[in-house]
Amino acid sequence: MARLDEVNRLQKIAGILKENLGDAADYSEAAFNLDKFMPEDETITMEYFNLKDMGDVEQLVGFLEQEADMEVLDRYMPEGGTLEGFAEYLINN
After folding, report:
1. pLDDT tens per residue across span 24-79
2. What is the reported pLDDT for 25?
3. Confidence at residue 52, expressed as pLDDT on a 0 to 100 scale
4. Contact criterion met (CB below 8 Å) for 57 and 85
5. Are 27 and 43 in contact (CB under 8 A)?
6. First-to-last CA distance in the chain?
7. How many CA atoms lie within 13 A of 49 on its CB side?
8. Domain locations in the chain as residue ranges
9. pLDDT for the residue numbered 31
């Protein structure tokens, strides 16, 4: 019975950690390679930085979906990564 209690306790801790840590994927490589999948256009670059500064994940996701070369971006995304997680990473870093 003590072993079952320990398993339940560990599962509860894991759930709390997952909830508080959110998306744990490492998006640093994708962020470092923005120039590989984003167009070299001053207007688009300014719009990207404006959206990033606003901190709106949904708008940044929409912008990436519209402007990024998604095939190339997918090469740099971490396994299990999401566009929402990547947008959040960009905003926070």
Report:
1. 689 999 999 999 999 999 999 999 999 999 999 999 999 999 999 999 999 999 98
2. 84
3. 95
4. no
5. no
6. 46
7. 5
8. 25-92
9. 95
Q: How many residues does the chain have?
A: 93
Q: Which two structure tokens, joined as six digits, stand for 48?
A: 């990207």
Task: Provide the pLDDT for residue 86.
Answer: 95
**DSSP secondary structure string for all residues of the chain:** -HHHHHHHHHHHHHHHHHHHH------HHHHHTHHHHS---HHHHHHHHHHHHHT-HHHHHHHHHHHS-HHHHHHHSPTT--HHHHHHHHHH-
How far apart are alpha carbons 67 and 85 in whole angstroms? 17
pLDDT at 2 exceeding the cut of 70: no
